[in-house]
Structure formats: structure tokens, C-alpha cells
Amino acid sequence: MHVGLLGTGTVGETLGSAFVGLDLVVCMGSRSTPNDRAQAWVAAQGDTAGAGTFAEAFAVGDVVFKCTCGAHSLEALRVAGADALAGKVPVDVANPLDFSDGSPPRLAVVGDDSLAGQIQLAFALTQVVKAPVIDLLTELGWSRGRVRDLGGVAAARATEMYLMLWVSLMGAVGSAQFNVRVVATESSE
Ligand SMILES: NC(=O)c1ccc[n+]([C@@H]2O[C@H](COP(=O)([O-])OP(=O)(O)OC[C@H]3O[C@@H](n4cnc5c(N)ncnc54)[C@H](OP(=O)(O)O)[C@@H]3O)[C@@H](O)[C@H]2O)c1
Fold this sequence. Notes:
Layout: E1 2-6, H1 10-21, E2 25-30, H2 36-44, E3 49-53, H3 54-60, E4 63-66, H4 73-80, H5 82-85, E5 90-92, E6 97-98, E7 106-107, H6 115-123, H7 130-139, H8 156-173
Parallel strand pairs: 1-2, 1-4, 2-3, 4-5
Antiparallel strand pairs: 6-7
Helix pairs in contact: 3-4
The structure holds NADP nicotinamide-adenine-dinucleotide phosphate (NAP).
NADP nicotinamide-adenine-dinucleotide phosphate binds next to helix 1 and helix 4.
């Protein structure tokens, strides 16, 4: 499987390095090339890592992870171009954070809307990539029983708003190194 990455920040680097570690071909995309961070990342990886524009990352990827800052998510996809997106679905790990009032941030999209929903509407995305994403998660070490499929894009309203719970938990835990686990009764498994 080939992976496209949109984003040269910590998230793009972290996911990209994990995918290279699985011997996958990975292309890290940026708005324009050459990009210093992308070049430094490629230099630190093995032969399966490369860099290009956002459009080139889409062209390479069977699965494309969008790791740009959330506030510019739609803009990043417009930079890639509608042709690049044809037949592809970006897996968006960006958070639509609004720091205009300082920290902690607010969510820029809430309620009956979501960033993922806005992306789907703007680019008329129809494909579903659940199977390859679940395969990748298990390759990265998640057991299948711990991966929960929440359904269609409407569920993104909830997963994006989880970020606010995550921010509160980070304050309580005193670290960002934690995760949550769903514990269900046997009858609901
Ligand atoms: N889901 C999770 O578990 C999780 C965890 C942590 C963070 N995140 C989210 O992941 C995202 C990435 O975070 P990060 O810290 O790695 O990177 P970041 O600094 O938030 O974003 C860097 C990327 O955004 C692109 N970008 C900046 N301004 C842009 C614009 N005007 N138009 C288009 N693209 C633009 C940059 O492009 P260039 O390369 O061309 O400069 C770069 O590739 C954020 O939304 C963050 O909230 C998610």
C-alpha cells in the first residue's frame, strides 16, 4: 500500500515515520516544493520515503492522510486541486481549532456540522475507505477488537468534538501521553 501525507508538521512526520517503519511507500506533501521540513524528514527515513506537492501526495497514495492545520483544511485540499482528489478519500486527522481567543482553543466547527462534513460537501466525496484504514491501524499495533467503526461522516461531529474532552483530560492528567478505551458490557460486544 502507498500512503500520501498532506502535512509537514509533527503529525505528518509521526504518521509518516510509522508508515515507513511498516515498509510502505510514503509521499509527504506540502503546498510548494522544495519544502525544508519535508526534505529533512525524507533524509531521515529509508528508501520508501519521498516528498512532493499536496497533489503529488494524492497521486501516490492509495490512502491519503490529511495532517494540515485544521483551520486551513479546505484550503489545503483546494491547493491539491479537485482532479487530485478524484477517486481518493483523504483521512482527515486535523482538528478544526480556533486559537483567536487564545488557549485553550475553541472548535471552529460544532453542533450539526463538522470539518469532515464540510470537506465531503465541498469535494463531493463518496468513497469509503474503512477497510484499508482499519488494516493500517492494526498494522500500527491496535487490536481489531479495540477499533470502533462509528459509521458515516455524521459521526465526525462527535469525534471532532472529542477534542474538547481531550484538552480537559490533558489538563487533569498533566500530560498528552494518554488515550481512552471503550469498556462495554459483554452483551454489547
Ligand atoms: N487526530 C489527532 O490525534 C491529532 C493529534 C495532534 C494533532 N492533530 C491535528 O493534526 C493537524 C496537524 O498538526 P501539526 O502540528 O502536525 O501541523 P500544523 O502545524 O498544524 O500544520 C502544518 C501543515 O499545515 C499546512 N498549512 C499551513 N497553512 C496552510 C494554508 N494556509 N493552506 C494550506 N495548508 C497550510 C502546512 O503546509 P506547508 O507544509 O506547505 O508549510 C503544513 O503542511 C492539526 O490540525 C492538529 O490539530 C491531530
